Give the backbone structure.
Amino acid sequence: MPGTAARGQAVRTFCRICEPSCGLVASVDDGALVKLSPDRDHAVTKGFACHKGLAAVDVHHDPARLDVPLVRGADGALHAVSWAEAMAEIGGRLRAIVDAHGSSAIGAYLGNPLAFNALGEQHMVEMLRGLGVRRRFSAGTQDCANKWAASEAVFGTRSVHPIPDLRRTDLCLVIGENPRVSQTSFFSVPNVLGEMRRSAGRGARFVFVNPRRIETPERGVGDTVLIRPDTDVWFLAALLHEIDRLGGFDESVVARHGRNVDGLRSFIGPYQADAVGAVTGIEPGTIRELARAWVDTPRASVHASTGLNMGRQGTLAYWLVHMLSFVTGHLDTEGGNLKSDGFYPNARSGAGDPQRGYIDTEFGKLRRGGMPGTLLSHSILDSAEPIRAMIVVAGNPLLSIPGERRLREAFGRLELLVSVDIYLNATSGLAHVVLPATDMYERDDLNVINVGTSARPFVQYTPAVVAAKALRRPEWWIAHRLLQEMGQPSLLDSEQPDPWAKLRYMLRSGSGIDLDELQHSGEPVLLPEPPPGTFYDTQVHTPDGRVDCCPTTFAAAIGRCHRLFAESAAAVDDGRLLLIHGRDRWMHNSWIASGRPDRSRAPLSMHPADAAALGLADGDAIEVTSDHGELETTVAIDDSLMRGVVWMVHGGGGRAEGANPNALLPTGAGSYEPLSSQAHMTGIPVTVAASSEC
Ligand SMILES: Nc1nc2c(c(=O)[nH]1)N[C@H]1C(S)=C(S)[C@@H](COP(=O)(O)OP(=O)(O)OC[C@H]3O[C@@H](n4cnc5c(=O)[nH]c(N)nc54)[C@H](O)[C@@H]3O)O[C@H]1N2
Ligand SMILES: Nc1nc2c(c(=O)[nH]1)N[C@H]1C(S)=C(S)[C@@H](COP(=O)(O)OP(=O)(O)OC[C@H]3O[C@@H](n4cnc5c(=O)[nH]c(N)nc54)[C@H](O)[C@@H]3O)O[C@H]1N2
Ligand code: SF4
Ligand SMILES: [Mo]
């Protein structure tokens, strides 16, 4: 392993659990990782780290970690084997499946931690290409696929996501995001709460749009505007409508850099603040006041996250987020929204023509690039050409994709399920072969996650801080070992494989950085901060170089949007509660539950008045039912919620015990947004009743 640390050393490294990539110092003694501490000398993250990042030392030493390859035997149990035996098992089964059904019978799912793993992601994707795997699923369609689709349509590239210029902004609208808990997404700011607090201290106003009064305002930053779930698109349409009425569009910016603004105006036409009041639950006066504030504030910015993404119309909603910034002249300006490049210009590499972005499949038209997660069980159980082998890397789709019960049945039908993970998770518990990966302190890496979305971009190399324990292997090696087993060209054919070749090239061509020097210094290298005044020249990749204010590919979605509005208006008082979910401070998706006060709880939080109306009290056992499934849990009274909304943490059933809200979410036809394949996961109507078993 290059750079593995010797005895009694402090090794500079960084965390790869979430997006800020906080700098850490690893204390290594006698080849063992002893402690992780915040790196106070880090030029960007400056000693910030959260408890999850520091507790990753426990993940490294956790006796529950996978140490050796496992193969399921005739007795139904998993047995320790060598890498050669595990690969022979996979190779034998895969070859039989491909011989009988072709490579289209192989599917794959790539989970969230792979996006934090520079070599792992690149080489796993290469391996899937080598094996001819067409049906690829990922955490992306449960997380952010709407953002890729919207940016591709508006800016001509899926990779452009301008971020608020927090240090200089005077008004920041934060939609469907909980920075205190999650440290934000598609927006890398170390200690984002501290940064927001500093901005608030100099007078910046933060407005959080959320069905819950989230923790961030409690910490002295801003106010919450409560919104009914899954209605962001209409709130944003009304905000733009009222801004336009006030003359807030910047006609010269729009004329110079935009096209189809008439289409945008026609879309927002029906949505005055008064018209959306009942559906969004937001007082018309609140929207008008926000519109006035936006027009009157020269430095105004906006950011949206998973709460907005997971509605039925995430692409249209994110389109309007871009529009709010662009048509009012706040994009590419100080204190507005800016886009940085990181160590390579990712806007260019993400460029694509939205007109050619969709393909015909047996499930209808789908966005090219990745299948909707909510069609995974259908692709195994209901397809004319079923997936028979699945390769799952760094993911727990059984728990993270809606519809666990159906997925369990589908995975049970597979002729081969391979899981590459650091733990035996719920998904790998069903696998035929489980392969033990290295964790983030056992592999060398580069902070690739925040390229293009970082407020203070830096690039840093970390060595493998310690050698891999037992038989754990890095993903790049596993990918190429499998290619080799399948008789495909593989890096391992060479005596001195160089998994870094592509990243070495990207670093050099993108920012003139020499990988060897980066490896040698261990220092984070600072890159240019997002520069105002360059966006339209460097980041827009539409055919005519203009920002598309109403892409023609949205036509059907716009018609659907108007129809859904009429339906939602009719359903406002139907008496059902609306389920939302999200994160808490201790859990990280399904795989970390660090220091969680009560690991066994995933209660349903209810507003006191909603609980009282059902005769329920804190701690009562309940059954929660939707049109798609049911679960049992207990009530937690929570007056931070909007009336009529109930909340659960997601990821339950993994490292933390407890119910998983995905049992209540839709799958199959109608469960994903047609434009982006993003799953519909928020604002799900449910009924709650005292548990009949009590
Ligand atoms: N109801 C509901 N569902 C959701 C969400 C929600 O808000 N609500 N959120 C969605 C979102 S945003 C996301 S990103 C997805 C996450 O979906 P997934 O990525 O499928 O799920 P995770 O729980 O993150 O599982 C990650 C797995 O990777 C393993 N792992 C960790 N580090 C490594 C490593 O270095 N190498 C390897 N090979 N494995 C590793 C962990 O042990 C774990 O088993 O879930 C989505 N599902
Ligand atoms: N502690 C912790 N941090 C994490 C993670 C974790 O599991 N735990 N996961 C990481 C991952 S993979 C991701 S993607 C990021 C996500 O980061 P965030 O997007 O900030 O995720 P959440 O903290 O769940 O915040 C989502 C918010 O959306 C609100 N919401 C729900 N429905 C709606 C809606 O319809 N409209 C609006 N406007 N709001 C709505 C919820 O109340 C919630 O406060 O967090 C990352 N950081
Ligand atoms: S904020 Fe995220 S990147 Fe930073 S230490 Fe915590 S988990 Fe790691
Ligand atoms: Mo995510």
In short: The CA atoms of residues 469 and 495 lie 23 Å apart. The mean pLDDT is 95. The two ends are 57 Å apart (CA to CA). Residues 9-61 form a domain with the Phosphorylase Kinase; domain 1 fold (CATH 3.30.200.210).
